[in-house]
Amino acid sequence: MSASQSAVRSRAEAVAVSRAFDWMILFVLFTAVLGGYHIHFMLTGGDWDFWSDWKDRRLWVTVVPIVAITFPAAVQACLWWRYRLPIGATLSVLALLIGEWVNRYFNFWGWTYFPINICFPSQLVPGAILLDVVLMLGGSMTLTAIVGGLGWGLIFYPGNWPVIAPLHIPVEYNGMMLTLADLSGYQYVRTGTPEYIRMVEKGTLRTFGKDVAPVSAFFSGFVSVIIYFLWHFFGKWFSGTGFISDDAS
User: Fold this and answer.
1) Going by C-beta distance under 8 Å and a sequence separation of 6 or more, which residues neighbour residue 39?
2) Domain residue ranges of the chain, discontinuous segments joined by +
3) Fewest Cβ atoms nearer than 10 Å: which of 9, 59, 91, 198?
4) Can you name the residues that pair with 178 across neighbouring β-strands?
5) Architecture of the domain made up of 12-238
6) According to the model, what pLDDT value does residue 235 have?
7) 57-84, pLDDT tens digit by residue?
8) CA-based angle 147:151:157, to the nearest 5?
9) Cα–Cα distance for residue pair 77/79, rounded to 1 Å
10) Exposure of 218 by Cβ count < 10 A (0-12 exposed, 13-18 middle, 19+ buried)?
11) pLDDT at 183
12) Distance of alpha carbon 212 from alpha carbon 204, whole angstroms
């Protein structure tokens, strides 16, 4: 076969090659979102998503949804403006969770022997499904930013409650009242700065009343609306097609 001849000899072979190429592109894009989102979330969410004794009802509920809505907003905008597919948030969160579970199992447990019930990742799928459903039903990025972004922050704590509730049970240890999450944190000491020496439920947010999670969730949802607006422009810009005019003609 010469260099000028085609590698395929029939339409069926051409379709098969095209489909294989499409799957390769999808795999590369999915891996790129996985890697970028995973690095971003580790650098910004950090310890609030790493350790169970950092998953409190105050800062965990506030910080994680705000820093986690970035890539879902961008990918959702890209797939919606380009292909009218309301699945961007769910796909990006699934990519993140794959990277997180690989990291937690092979690095945290496999290398440093931290139990999985101390270093499990946060559950973000309920909020991602909410974002995609709002976009699918409303068909508006503005509505998705306001309603979906607020819902993203509000649903985070209830979505994680079945997992984190057993670790918030109070226990008495050496005359101190603390949670099971704090007790596990004392038993598995981590090297680092004094920020690691902390207690769940400590803070001035208690002045708002006994239940701090709703206040944190509403604040997180409000900021998530703003972050969604900013990051959806990145996805819209990335999905755009630009043309260069031919001035000579």
Assistant:
1) none
2) 12-238
3) 9
4) 171
5) Up-down Bundle (1.20)
6) 87
7) 788 899 999 999 999 999 999 999 988 9
8) 170
9) 6
10) middle
11) 85
12) 10
